[in-house]
Amino acid sequence: MTSTSLRLRLIVIILAPLLAIGAAIAAWQVEYARTKGAEVFDRSLLSAALAISADVARSNGDAISRETADLLSDTSGGLVFYHVYAPDGIYVLGYATPPVRGDGVAPSDDEITFYDGRYHSRDVRVLRFRAVTTVDGISGVFTYTVWQDVAVRDAFVHDLVRRTFTVIATLIGSVALVVWFGVGLGLRPLLDLEDAISRRSSDDLSPIRRPVPVEARGLVTRLNTLFGQVHSAMEAQTTLISNAAHQLRNPIAGVLAMAEAARSAPTDAEARARTDGVLCAARRASDLANKLLTLERVRAAPPGTFDVEIDLGEVIAQIAEDFRPRAAQQGVSLDTALAPGAVPVTADRVMVTEAITNLVDNALHHGGADLRHVEIGLVRDEGTAIVTVADDGIGLDRADVATVLARFGQAVPGEGSGLGLSIAEAVVERHGGTLDVQTERRGLSVTLRFPVAGCG
Fold it and tell me: Which CATH code, of 2.40.10, 1.10.287, 2.60.40, 3.40.50, is assigned to 214-297?
Protein backbone atom coordinates (compact mmCIF):
# COMPACT_ATOMS: atom_id res chain seq x y z
CA MET A 1 0.00 0.00 0.00
CA THR A 2 3.07 2.22 -0.07
CA SER A 3 2.14 3.56 -3.52
CA THR A 4 -1.48 4.46 -2.70
CA SER A 5 -2.65 7.91 -1.70
CA LEU A 6 -2.26 9.09 1.86
CA ARG A 7 -5.99 9.76 2.08
CA LEU A 8 -6.82 6.17 1.11
CA ARG A 9 -4.24 4.83 3.56
CA LEU A 10 -5.72 6.85 6.42
CA ILE A 11 -9.27 5.82 5.51
CA VAL A 12 -8.31 2.14 5.40
CA ILE A 13 -6.44 2.43 8.69
CA ILE A 14 -9.46 4.06 10.35
CA LEU A 15 -12.27 2.06 8.75
CA ALA A 16 -10.68 -1.41 8.83
CA PRO A 17 -10.90 -1.68 12.65
CA LEU A 18 -14.44 -0.25 12.55
CA LEU A 19 -15.49 -2.85 9.99
CA ALA A 20 -13.94 -5.61 12.11
CA ILE A 21 -15.72 -4.33 15.22
CA GLY A 22 -18.97 -3.99 13.27
CA ALA A 23 -18.67 -7.57 11.98
CA ALA A 24 -17.99 -8.85 15.50
CA ILE A 25 -20.99 -6.94 16.87
CA ALA A 26 -23.18 -8.21 14.04
CA ALA A 27 -22.13 -11.82 14.68
CA TRP A 28 -22.79 -11.40 18.38
CA GLN A 29 -26.15 -9.75 17.66
CA VAL A 30 -27.22 -12.62 15.36
CA GLU A 31 -26.46 -15.18 18.06
CA TYR A 32 -28.11 -13.00 20.69
CA ALA A 33 -31.20 -12.55 18.51
CA ARG A 34 -31.52 -16.29 18.02
CA THR A 35 -31.15 -17.03 21.71
CA LYS A 36 -33.39 -14.18 22.78
CA GLY A 37 -35.98 -15.02 20.13
CA ALA A 38 -36.12 -18.61 21.34
CA GLU A 39 -36.59 -17.44 24.93
CA VAL A 40 -39.35 -14.98 23.96
CA PHE A 41 -41.24 -17.57 21.94
CA ASP A 42 -40.89 -20.26 24.59
CA ARG A 43 -42.23 -17.86 27.23
CA SER A 44 -45.11 -16.98 24.92
CA LEU A 45 -45.98 -20.66 24.56
CA LEU A 46 -45.83 -21.09 28.34
CA SER A 47 -48.12 -18.09 28.86
CA ALA A 48 -50.57 -19.54 26.36
CA ALA A 49 -50.49 -22.96 28.08
CA LEU A 50 -51.12 -21.40 31.48
CA ALA A 51 -54.04 -19.36 30.10
CA ILE A 52 -55.56 -22.46 28.46
CA SER A 53 -55.24 -24.54 31.66
CA ALA A 54 -56.98 -21.80 33.65
CA ASP A 55 -59.82 -21.60 31.12
CA VAL A 56 -60.26 -25.40 31.09
CA ALA A 57 -60.60 -25.47 34.88
CA ARG A 58 -62.99 -22.52 34.88
CA SER A 59 -65.24 -23.75 32.03
CA ASN A 60 -65.06 -27.45 32.92
CA GLY A 61 -63.29 -28.09 29.62
CA ASP A 62 -65.99 -26.61 27.45
CA ALA A 63 -64.20 -23.59 25.91
CA ILE A 64 -61.51 -20.98 26.30
CA SER A 65 -62.10 -17.30 26.99
CA ARG A 66 -62.10 -14.58 24.39
CA GLU A 67 -58.94 -13.10 25.93
CA THR A 68 -57.13 -16.42 25.59
CA ALA A 69 -58.37 -16.81 22.02
CA ASP A 70 -56.97 -13.36 21.19
CA LEU A 71 -53.69 -14.34 22.82
CA LEU A 72 -53.47 -17.52 20.76
CA SER A 73 -54.26 -15.74 17.51
CA ASP A 74 -51.28 -13.37 17.69
CA THR A 75 -48.68 -14.63 20.11
CA SER A 76 -45.29 -13.14 19.08
CA GLY A 77 -46.68 -12.38 15.64
CA GLY A 78 -48.15 -15.79 14.76
CA LEU A 79 -50.99 -18.23 15.48
CA VAL A 80 -50.61 -20.67 18.38
CA PHE A 81 -52.22 -24.11 18.20
CA TYR A 82 -53.25 -26.14 21.26
CA HIS A 83 -54.46 -29.60 22.33
CA VAL A 84 -55.80 -30.77 25.73
CA TYR A 85 -56.48 -34.29 26.95
CA ALA A 86 -57.56 -35.72 30.28
CA PRO A 87 -55.69 -38.15 32.56
CA ASP A 88 -57.34 -41.11 30.88
CA GLY A 89 -56.20 -39.91 27.43
CA ILE A 90 -59.63 -38.62 26.38
CA TYR A 91 -59.54 -35.59 24.09
CA VAL A 92 -60.88 -32.50 25.87
CA LEU A 93 -60.26 -29.35 23.81
CA GLY A 94 -58.32 -27.85 20.89
CA TYR A 95 -56.98 -29.32 17.71
CA ALA A 96 -57.48 -33.03 17.17
CA THR A 97 -53.88 -34.23 17.28
CA PRO A 98 -50.71 -32.74 18.74
CA PRO A 99 -47.39 -32.54 16.79
CA VAL A 100 -45.05 -35.49 16.51
CA ARG A 101 -41.77 -35.12 18.34
CA GLY A 102 -38.95 -34.85 15.80
CA ASP A 103 -36.28 -36.76 17.73
CA GLY A 104 -38.56 -39.75 18.40
CA VAL A 105 -38.00 -39.58 22.18
CA ALA A 106 -40.97 -40.71 24.27
CA PRO A 107 -42.82 -37.95 26.17
CA SER A 108 -41.50 -37.41 29.69
CA ASP A 109 -43.52 -36.88 32.86
CA ASP A 110 -41.92 -33.45 33.53
CA GLU A 111 -44.27 -30.58 34.25
CA ILE A 112 -42.86 -28.46 31.39
CA THR A 113 -41.16 -29.85 28.29
CA PHE A 114 -40.04 -27.93 25.19
CA TYR A 115 -39.13 -29.74 21.98
CA ASP A 116 -39.08 -29.37 18.20
CA GLY A 117 -41.63 -31.33 16.22
CA ARG A 118 -43.54 -31.75 12.98
CA TYR A 119 -47.17 -30.78 12.41
CA HIS A 120 -48.74 -31.31 8.99
CA SER A 121 -45.26 -31.36 7.35
CA ARG A 122 -44.29 -28.09 9.04
CA ASP A 123 -41.56 -27.52 11.60
CA VAL A 124 -43.01 -26.31 14.88
CA ARG A 125 -41.88 -25.42 18.37
CA VAL A 126 -43.84 -27.35 21.00
CA LEU A 127 -44.53 -26.94 24.73
CA ARG A 128 -45.97 -29.90 26.67
CA PHE A 129 -47.42 -28.73 30.00
CA ARG A 130 -48.78 -31.10 32.66
CA ALA A 131 -50.91 -29.75 35.53
CA VAL A 132 -53.47 -31.06 38.01
CA THR A 133 -56.92 -29.82 36.93
CA THR A 134 -60.47 -30.53 38.18
CA VAL A 135 -63.19 -30.89 35.54
CA ASP A 136 -66.77 -31.90 36.53
CA GLY A 137 -65.52 -33.00 39.93
CA ILE A 138 -62.80 -35.19 38.44
CA SER A 139 -59.25 -34.29 39.34
CA GLY A 140 -56.10 -35.49 37.64
CA VAL A 141 -53.07 -34.55 35.59
CA PHE A 142 -54.23 -32.92 32.36
CA THR A 143 -51.78 -32.54 29.46
CA TYR A 144 -51.74 -29.24 27.56
CA THR A 145 -49.79 -29.10 24.28
CA VAL A 146 -49.25 -25.75 22.52
CA TRP A 147 -47.18 -25.16 19.43
CA GLN A 148 -46.26 -22.54 16.84
CA ASP A 149 -44.58 -22.60 13.42
CA VAL A 150 -40.80 -22.19 13.57
CA ALA A 151 -41.10 -19.91 10.54
CA VAL A 152 -42.72 -17.27 12.74
CA ARG A 153 -39.78 -17.36 15.12
CA ASP A 154 -37.25 -17.29 12.24
CA ALA A 155 -39.01 -14.29 10.69
CA PHE A 156 -38.76 -12.49 14.02
CA VAL A 157 -35.04 -13.27 14.30
CA HIS A 158 -34.39 -12.26 10.69
CA ASP A 159 -36.20 -8.97 11.20
CA LEU A 160 -34.18 -8.25 14.34
CA VAL A 161 -30.91 -9.12 12.57
CA ARG A 162 -31.85 -7.02 9.55
CA ARG A 163 -32.53 -4.03 11.78
CA THR A 164 -29.20 -4.55 13.52
CA PHE A 165 -27.30 -4.77 10.22
CA THR A 166 -29.09 -1.67 8.95
CA VAL A 167 -28.07 0.32 12.01
CA ILE A 168 -24.45 -0.89 11.87
CA ALA A 169 -24.18 -0.27 8.11
CA THR A 170 -25.67 3.21 8.53
CA LEU A 171 -23.22 4.05 11.30
CA ILE A 172 -20.19 2.74 9.38
CA GLY A 173 -21.31 4.49 6.20
CA SER A 174 -21.75 7.75 8.10
CA VAL A 175 -18.33 7.35 9.70
CA ALA A 176 -16.81 6.57 6.29
CA LEU A 177 -18.23 9.79 4.84
CA VAL A 178 -17.05 11.81 7.81
CA VAL A 179 -13.59 10.23 7.61
CA TRP A 180 -13.36 10.78 3.83
CA PHE A 181 -14.13 14.48 4.04
CA GLY A 182 -12.35 14.87 7.38
CA VAL A 183 -9.13 13.36 6.08
CA GLY A 184 -9.41 15.56 2.99
CA LEU A 185 -9.68 18.65 5.17
CA GLY A 186 -6.85 17.42 7.39
CA LEU A 187 -4.58 16.85 4.39
CA ARG A 188 -5.31 20.21 2.80
CA PRO A 189 -2.24 21.91 4.40
CA LEU A 190 -0.02 19.17 2.94
CA LEU A 191 -1.64 19.55 -0.47
CA ASP A 192 -1.09 23.32 -0.25
CA LEU A 193 2.53 22.63 0.67
CA GLU A 194 2.91 20.31 -2.31
CA ASP A 195 1.43 22.95 -4.60
CA ALA A 196 3.76 25.63 -3.22
CA ILE A 197 6.82 23.42 -3.74
CA SER A 198 5.73 22.47 -7.26
CA ARG A 199 5.50 26.15 -8.19
CA ARG A 200 9.13 26.76 -7.26
CA SER A 201 11.78 27.07 -9.89
CA SER A 202 14.69 24.63 -9.95
CA ASP A 203 17.00 27.40 -8.71
CA ASP A 204 14.90 28.30 -5.66
CA LEU A 205 16.41 26.46 -2.68
CA SER A 206 15.26 28.91 -0.04
CA PRO A 207 13.71 27.45 3.15
CA ILE A 208 9.99 26.63 3.20
CA ARG A 209 8.15 29.21 5.32
CA ARG A 210 4.54 28.01 4.97
CA PRO A 211 2.62 27.06 8.14
CA VAL A 212 2.11 23.30 8.35
CA PRO A 213 0.57 20.92 10.93
CA VAL A 214 2.72 19.81 13.84
CA GLU A 215 3.01 16.30 12.37
CA ALA A 216 4.54 17.69 9.16
CA ARG A 217 7.00 20.11 10.75
CA GLY A 218 9.70 17.45 11.00
CA LEU A 219 9.34 16.73 7.28
CA VAL A 220 9.53 20.43 6.40
CA THR A 221 12.53 20.88 8.69
CA ARG A 222 14.33 18.01 6.97
CA LEU A 223 13.44 19.44 3.56
CA ASN A 224 14.83 22.84 4.58
CA THR A 225 17.99 21.12 5.84
CA LEU A 226 18.28 19.25 2.55
CA PHE A 227 17.73 22.46 0.59
CA GLY A 228 20.48 24.11 2.62
CA GLN A 229 22.87 21.21 2.01
CA VAL A 230 22.12 21.20 -1.71
CA HIS A 231 22.57 24.97 -1.85
CA SER A 232 25.91 24.71 -0.04
CA ALA A 233 27.02 21.87 -2.30
CA MET A 234 26.07 23.84 -5.41
CA GLU A 235 27.93 26.91 -4.14
CA ALA A 236 30.97 24.75 -3.33
CA GLN A 237 30.77 23.15 -6.75
CA THR A 238 30.53 26.54 -8.42
CA THR A 239 33.48 27.80 -6.40
CA LEU A 240 35.50 24.72 -7.24
CA ILE A 241 34.80 25.03 -10.95
CA SER A 242 35.70 28.72 -10.89
CA ASN A 243 38.91 28.10 -8.94
CA ALA A 244 39.80 25.08 -11.07
CA ALA A 245 39.30 27.06 -14.26
CA HIS A 246 41.49 29.82 -12.84
CA GLN A 247 44.21 27.41 -11.67
CA LEU A 248 44.23 25.39 -14.89
CA ARG A 249 44.39 28.50 -17.05
CA ASN A 250 48.05 29.21 -16.31
CA PRO A 251 49.37 25.65 -16.94
CA ILE A 252 47.31 25.34 -20.10
CA ALA A 253 48.45 28.75 -21.28
CA GLY A 254 52.02 27.71 -20.55
CA VAL A 255 51.55 24.49 -22.53
CA LEU A 256 50.16 26.43 -25.49
CA ALA A 257 52.90 29.04 -25.38
CA MET A 258 55.67 26.46 -25.17
CA ALA A 259 54.05 24.40 -27.91
CA GLU A 260 53.99 27.47 -30.15
CA ALA A 261 57.62 28.17 -29.23
CA ALA A 262 58.62 24.58 -30.03
CA ARG A 263 56.79 24.80 -33.34
CA SER A 264 58.65 27.94 -34.31
CA ALA A 265 62.07 26.76 -33.13
CA PRO A 266 64.76 27.45 -35.74
CA THR A 267 66.55 24.15 -35.23
CA ASP A 268 65.66 20.62 -34.23
CA ALA A 269 67.82 20.86 -31.12
CA GLU A 270 66.04 24.01 -30.02
CA ALA A 271 62.66 22.37 -30.70
CA ARG A 272 63.59 19.37 -28.53
CA ALA A 273 64.72 21.68 -25.75
CA ARG A 274 61.46 23.62 -25.87
CA THR A 275 59.48 20.34 -25.99
CA ASP A 276 60.87 19.48 -22.55
CA GLY A 277 59.21 22.64 -21.25
CA VAL A 278 55.93 21.62 -22.89
CA LEU A 279 56.14 18.22 -21.19
CA CYS A 280 56.82 19.80 -17.80
CA ALA A 281 53.89 22.21 -18.11
CA ALA A 282 51.60 19.38 -19.30
CA ARG A 283 52.59 17.31 -16.27
CA ARG A 284 51.74 20.19 -13.97
CA ALA A 285 48.32 20.55 -15.60
CA SER A 286 47.76 16.79 -15.39
CA ASP A 287 48.78 16.72 -11.72
CA LEU A 288 46.41 19.58 -10.93
CA ALA A 289 43.53 17.88 -12.77
CA ASN A 290 44.17 14.60 -10.98
CA LYS A 291 44.21 16.31 -7.60
CA LEU A 292 40.92 18.07 -8.41
CA LEU A 293 39.35 14.73 -9.34
CA THR A 294 40.69 13.15 -6.17
CA LEU A 295 39.27 15.95 -4.03
CA GLU A 296 35.83 15.62 -5.64
CA ARG A 297 35.89 11.85 -5.27
CA VAL A 298 36.64 12.23 -1.57
CA ARG A 299 33.90 14.83 -1.13
CA ALA A 300 31.36 12.63 -2.93
CA ALA A 301 32.06 9.58 -0.74
CA PRO A 302 29.49 9.30 2.10
CA PRO A 303 31.11 9.41 5.56
CA GLY A 304 31.52 6.11 7.38
CA THR A 305 30.61 3.86 4.44
CA PHE A 306 33.94 2.05 4.13
CA ASP A 307 34.01 -1.64 5.05
CA VAL A 308 37.57 -2.78 4.22
CA GLU A 309 40.28 -3.04 6.87
CA ILE A 310 43.77 -1.90 5.91
CA ASP A 311 47.03 -1.86 7.86
CA LEU A 312 48.26 1.73 8.14
CA GLY A 313 51.80 0.58 8.86
CA GLU A 314 51.91 -1.31 5.57
CA VAL A 315 50.51 1.69 3.66
CA ILE A 316 53.06 4.08 5.19
CA ALA A 317 55.97 1.72 4.51
CA GLN A 318 55.03 1.54 0.83
CA ILE A 319 54.68 5.34 0.56
CA ALA A 320 58.09 5.86 2.15
CA GLU A 321 59.65 3.34 -0.24
CA ASP A 322 58.16 5.20 -3.22
CA PHE A 323 59.42 8.63 -2.06
CA ARG A 324 62.98 7.70 -0.98
CA PRO A 325 64.55 8.09 -4.46
CA ARG A 326 63.09 11.60 -4.83
CA ALA A 327 64.10 12.52 -1.25
CA ALA A 328 67.64 11.27 -1.89
CA GLN A 329 67.89 13.44 -5.02
CA GLN A 330 67.01 16.46 -2.85
CA GLY A 331 69.50 15.46 -0.15
CA VAL A 332 66.73 14.65 2.31
CA SER A 333 66.53 11.59 4.56
CA LEU A 334 63.08 10.00 4.69
CA ASP A 335 62.49 7.79 7.74
CA THR A 336 59.54 6.02 9.34
CA ALA A 337 58.72 5.45 13.01
CA LEU A 338 55.97 2.82 13.04
CA ALA A 339 54.14 1.28 16.00
CA PRO A 340 54.87 -2.43 16.52
CA GLY A 341 52.27 -4.77 15.10
CA ALA A 342 49.41 -4.03 12.76
CA VAL A 343 47.32 -0.87 13.14
CA PRO A 344 44.07 -1.70 11.30
CA VAL A 345 41.61 0.96 10.18
CA THR A 346 38.40 0.61 8.20
CA ALA A 347 39.12 2.81 5.20
CA ASP A 348 39.49 3.24 1.47
CA ARG A 349 43.12 2.32 0.76
CA VAL A 350 43.43 4.57 -2.30
CA MET A 351 42.09 7.62 -0.43
CA VAL A 352 44.29 7.11 2.64
CA THR A 353 47.34 6.55 0.43
CA GLU A 354 46.55 9.74 -1.49
CA ALA A 355 46.19 11.75 1.76
CA ILE A 356 49.54 10.66 3.24
CA THR A 357 51.23 10.93 -0.16
CA ASN A 358 50.13 14.56 -0.43
CA LEU A 359 51.55 15.34 3.02
CA VAL A 360 54.94 13.84 2.14
CA ASP A 361 54.90 15.58 -1.25
CA ASN A 362 54.14 18.92 0.46
CA ALA A 363 57.03 18.43 2.87
CA LEU A 364 59.49 17.73 0.06
CA HIS A 365 58.06 20.45 -2.17
CA HIS A 366 57.66 23.30 0.36
CA GLY A 367 60.28 22.44 2.98
CA GLY A 368 62.74 24.93 1.53
CA ALA A 369 66.45 24.78 0.81
CA ASP A 370 67.33 23.86 4.40
CA LEU A 371 65.11 20.78 4.47
CA ARG A 372 67.16 17.76 5.56
CA HIS A 373 64.82 15.30 7.24
CA VAL A 374 61.24 14.06 6.84
CA GLU A 375 59.70 11.46 9.16
CA ILE A 376 56.43 9.55 8.87
CA GLY A 377 55.27 8.34 12.27
CA LEU A 378 52.50 5.97 13.31
CA VAL A 379 51.34 5.32 16.88
CA ARG A 380 48.25 3.73 18.35
CA ASP A 381 46.58 5.54 21.24
CA GLU A 382 43.75 3.31 22.50
CA GLY A 383 41.10 3.54 19.74
CA THR A 384 42.93 6.06 17.55
CA ALA A 385 45.61 5.58 14.92
CA ILE A 386 47.83 8.68 14.73
CA VAL A 387 49.80 9.37 11.57
CA THR A 388 52.32 12.24 11.69
CA VAL A 389 54.32 13.67 8.79
CA ALA A 390 57.00 16.01 10.22
CA ASP A 391 59.87 17.87 8.58
CA ASP A 392 62.64 20.24 9.63
CA GLY A 393 62.06 22.72 6.82
CA ILE A 394 61.06 26.37 6.84
CA GLY A 395 57.81 25.67 8.68
CA LEU A 396 54.64 27.75 8.64
CA ASP A 397 53.23 30.71 10.54
CA ARG A 398 50.17 29.93 12.63
CA ALA A 399 48.25 32.66 10.83
CA ASP A 400 48.75 30.84 7.52
CA VAL A 401 47.20 27.52 8.64
CA ALA A 402 43.69 28.45 7.48
CA THR A 403 45.14 29.57 4.14
CA VAL A 404 46.98 26.33 3.41
CA LEU A 405 43.94 24.23 4.41
CA ALA A 406 41.74 26.08 1.91
CA ARG A 407 41.48 24.89 -1.68
CA PHE A 408 44.32 26.23 -3.84
CA GLY A 409 45.69 27.94 -0.74
CA GLN A 410 49.44 28.53 -0.46
CA ALA A 411 51.33 30.42 2.24
CA VAL A 412 53.95 31.37 -0.36
CA PRO A 413 52.98 31.37 -4.06
CA GLY A 414 54.73 28.59 -5.93
CA GLU A 415 54.34 25.85 -8.46
CA GLY A 416 52.22 23.57 -6.22
CA SER A 417 48.50 23.06 -6.70
CA GLY A 418 47.49 24.16 -3.20
CA LEU A 419 45.28 21.07 -2.86
CA GLY A 420 47.48 18.68 -0.86
CA LEU A 421 46.27 19.60 2.64
CA SER A 422 42.69 20.06 1.43
CA ILE A 423 42.68 16.51 0.07
CA ALA A 424 44.24 15.10 3.26
CA GLU A 425 41.70 16.90 5.45
CA ALA A 426 38.77 15.76 3.30
CA VAL A 427 39.99 12.14 3.41
CA VAL A 428 40.44 11.99 7.15
CA GLU A 429 37.07 13.64 7.80
CA ARG A 430 35.34 11.13 5.48
CA HIS A 431 36.82 8.39 7.66
CA GLY A 432 35.58 9.96 10.89
CA GLY A 433 38.94 11.44 11.91
CA THR A 434 40.65 14.81 12.21
CA LEU A 435 43.65 16.72 10.81
CA ASP A 436 45.84 18.99 12.90
CA VAL A 437 48.68 21.30 11.77
CA GLN A 438 51.39 22.04 14.37
CA THR A 439 53.63 25.06 13.86
CA GLU A 440 55.13 25.50 17.33
CA ARG A 441 58.21 23.40 16.57
CA ARG A 442 60.85 23.81 13.90
CA GLY A 443 59.56 22.85 10.50
CA LEU A 444 56.02 21.62 10.05
CA SER A 445 54.12 18.66 11.51
CA VAL A 446 50.76 17.48 10.18
CA THR A 447 48.81 14.85 12.18
CA LEU A 448 46.02 12.61 10.91
CA ARG A 449 43.85 10.73 13.40
CA PHE A 450 41.82 7.70 12.22
CA PRO A 451 39.52 5.48 14.32
CA VAL A 452 41.06 2.04 14.78
CA ALA A 453 38.95 -0.79 13.34
CA GLY A 454 36.82 -2.57 15.93
CA CYS A 455 37.07 0.23 18.52
CA GLY A 456 33.86 2.09 17.60
Answer: 1.10.287
